[in-house]
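Box S2. Input/output pair 1.
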Amino acid sequence: MTSPKINAILKNLPELPGVYIMRDEQGNVIYVGKAKKLKRRVSSYFRHSHASARLNKLVETVKDISIIRTESEAEALIVEAKLIRRYSPFFNIELKMGDHYPYIKITNEDYPKIEITRHKINDGSNYLGPFVDAGNIKNLMRLTERYFPLRKCKAQIKPDTNKRPCIEYNLGRSLGACAGLCSQDEYKERVKDIILLFSGNYPELVERLRSKMNAAAKNLKFEDAAHYRDAIKAIWKLSRQKISSALQEDLDNETWNVLNNIQKLLKLKLLPWRIDAFDISHTSGHDTYGCCIVFEQGRPAKNLYRRFKIRSLAEGEINDFAAMYETVTRRYKRIIENSDPAPQLALIDGGIIQLEYAQKALNDLNFQIPLIALAEREEILFVPDQKEPITLERSDPVLQMFQRLRDEVHRYAITTHKHKRESKFKYSLLNEIPGIGRKRVTELLIKFGSVQKIAELTPEELAKADGIGITLAQKILAALNNRES
């Protein structure tokens, strides 16, 4: 019979992709699995008895289940593989013996073949992988067969110009090496393209193809040029698939322990695999921006950072609370509309009032995620609906993780505001001066480097620039120095 605790966990699981972690009574990880729909997959273990004695024993041993939400099933595969390598759970070893992820093998021959294998051996071949996502490897193989085909025959290649090429050549699926229609160097260039493709080095591969495309077009080989163009389009399309950059590195034990301790401290239902952090930046109410940064596996995921120009405040109006409300609203409204994965926790830079405005934003969206606020001076944590804040030792790794989040979002907010302010100063201030067009502004900035350096010139020095006389120089400097003061 399933325990009330397990029943409650199963009831609250989402029908979304992710990884589930099963623990025994002592809290040891005994099984890690991935699922396209967590609720359906995990619940299936407890619906009925199983033919496998090992599986029945697993179900009997499970006393707790936690999950990690992922963006896709492909990401879940990556997370599952990392956690299995980290913990070597007993039932994963028992239930998955002999289950190996596939490699791409480039054979050790003068004219290599490309193969898929689940066993990496020391035979001099080039092995790429392993690949945890079967769909991904299929897409790469399909792209290879279309744009970078190698030979498929098993016979040893001995180029013979008197030999007719096989049907694969006539179908555009071979370089015709057996009939001497390509040199060994040309064949190796194709192999290099494939290695770049399966290694994920798309920028270098695209540059190689672009060079070949231009050369083909220059030599009036327009069909070849079109082939390279189509290959480039296919590669960029493939490169836009969403795989979290933070998941490319292994999760260390220390970070895993910190994430577990955060979950226990805040009584979170889910492990905080992905954490958002928010901050507001402005200059006396001008150019107000709300910023959100993201940590995954305890590391910055900079491709997920977002900034928002605050629209609800008048220019010069200072209201960090309203700005926080707008930032949180816009951040999670986008997540809702795009069906993007939500974080398991969000941190607000500020105190209890900032936290209340952030919570109100979530309530108005009818969207719930756990929130906390970190007050900078006292370094204490505020939790919604909890009267007393949480105070941790300065040496506590949990507090240090939250401080890293707060410091990173603070840095990002200040950098965002600085860049926007400098950009505005650089490009709009000179444009506002009567008698100076965009072309002349550009020429001045190229010559002197920045508006600040222009403002430091004497009228005589500025007047030496092309198209600037003493009268216009005096007008420019007067406008800049008056604005700076």
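Box S3. Input/output pair 2.
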Amino acid sequence: MRSTIFKACAALSLAAALLTAAACSQGGATHPGGATDGPGAGGEGMVPTTVEVMAIKGPSGIGMVKMMDSPPSAADDITFNYRLAGSRPDEVVAALSSGSVDIAALPTNLAGNLYQKTSGDIRLIALITYANLFLVEAGTAIEGMSDLVGKTIHASGQGANPQYILEYLLQEAGLAPGTDVAIEWHTEMSELAALLASGQIDIALMPEPFVSTVLAKNSQARAALDLNGLWKEATGYPPVMTAVVARTDFAEGNSTAVSLFLDGLGQSIAWVQANPADAAALCVAHDIMADASIAQAAIPRSGLVFIEGNDMKAPLISYFSILEAANPASIGGSLPDDAFFYQR
């Protein structure tokens, strides 16, 4: 009797082992984090059930707000989880470096830096804003760059896109930063906006949505100079300010998820541009901005755009070439190679 039971148990164990092996060979083995080996995204390998996405409160969050409200879906059971960082991009870099997010928005020059410093651990999958930088003045004295002689510009973003854009345009106008025009750097953009809104300073360099916030609080303030337009006049391309990147291992193993995300991103940006009032309401609902009227005013000046694939190369290389000439370290030491630009 014992021999019969032993043989039966052995047979069941063998059958279970064979079934497990068959399941693994057909793509059924699961892994921590909800990933699955095998088919599910064109036989790509690791296919996550949840894609972690990070945006920054401001234009990148505004551009993604329709996706946050109505996430893309697919038969592959891919879902997207969105989180927001504050105005400083340090949190985004940390999340990408730790692998806790798969796709994230961050400043273009920081994306270039991260690509070089990690030897290619990220890929650029889209450009989503041109520069949305303005010289905001509490007054009417500034009509062109030459009117800045002898003035002090208050700014935030030293060592990042705002500094390089401002200094390049001053030099193009024949003005020496620090000599003809003083620049006082502040750590926080929110501090800068508060100073201008309260009338404690007269001229500040700032992006949206801070511009609209100041204009709503100080009736004497106006967007005096659009640096995006001035840069395009000088170089032929608008300055590309915000990148969306994906971790390389994620992008290479999950092309269906990346493609689904890019389709949704392009649609979301187009919808926001066409429906600023509705988009502004969603920005409040998703904690991107606190005031719908300010969000609605900011959207037309936010420089929202959707560029992917080969179309990213010309504007980004044009922009990075100028940054490289000013300070190679600003983009990680050298221009990115073709592998930086994700193709689907």
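Caption for Box S3: Confidence is low (pLDDT under 50) at residues 1-48. The CA atoms of residues 42 and 196 lie 53 Å apart.
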